[in-house]
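ok, trying the design again with the full structure, not the truncated one.
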């Protein structure tokens, strides 16, 4: 498996190889372009010197906020997202023994169980958990029973709804078109 989300080879390699980096990228994926969000873990690693749960959980909060604020910023809301990444890292350290992949590997969990584990994480609501579960199933080899149903509609085969469907520049374009159409439909329904 090799992820192709950011258009940056080093950032995508980190996402492919490091489950915590992938979780952090998903956490950052709000109110910024997907590529920016998922490139964030590489910026964090370059600036902190590591991207592991214990290091990030134990990092001085003000210093981490400064790390997120350096140009180019990790996120458009650097201080609040630094806090969220720190909270996520602390939960991974405490609840999963610093092993982010244990969320979807420990105990041979089903799709619904992984979704439940994800929604228990700081910063992961139902939709973010479903998208991440779809990403695990579509691109990361997760085969837990019921993962497509538990990630619906994002697990739908052949769809272009989210980061779970990005495997090339063309699929990125299709995901963007889908998101624009959804925003336009929501705007039209309010009018």
């Amino acid at each position: 498996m090799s992820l192709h989300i950011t258009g940056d080879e080093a950032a995508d390699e980190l996402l492919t190889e490091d489950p915590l980096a992938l979780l952090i990228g998903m956490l950052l994926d709000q109110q910024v372009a997907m590529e920016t969000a998922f490139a964030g873990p590489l910026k964090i690693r370059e600036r902190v010197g590591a991207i592991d749960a214990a290091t990030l959980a134990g990092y001085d909060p003000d210093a981490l906020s400064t790390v997120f604020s350096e140009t180019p910023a990790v996120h458009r809301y650097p201080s609040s997202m630094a806090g969220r990444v720190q909270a996520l890292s602390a939960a991974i350290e405490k609840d999963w023994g610093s092993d982010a992949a244990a969320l979807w590997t420990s105990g041979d969990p089903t799709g619904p169980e992984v979704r439940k584990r994800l929604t228990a994480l700081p910063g992961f609501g139902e939709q973010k958990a479903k998208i991440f579960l779809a990403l695990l199933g579509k691109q990361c080899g997760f085969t837990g029973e019921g993962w497509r149903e538990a990630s619906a509609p994002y697990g739908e085969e052949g769809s272009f709804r989210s980061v779970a469907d990005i495997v090339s520049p063309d699929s990125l374009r299709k995901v963007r078109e889908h998101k624009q159409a959804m925003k336009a439909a929501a705007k039209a329904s309010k009018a």
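Keeping the full-length input from now on. The chain has a mean pLDDT of 95.
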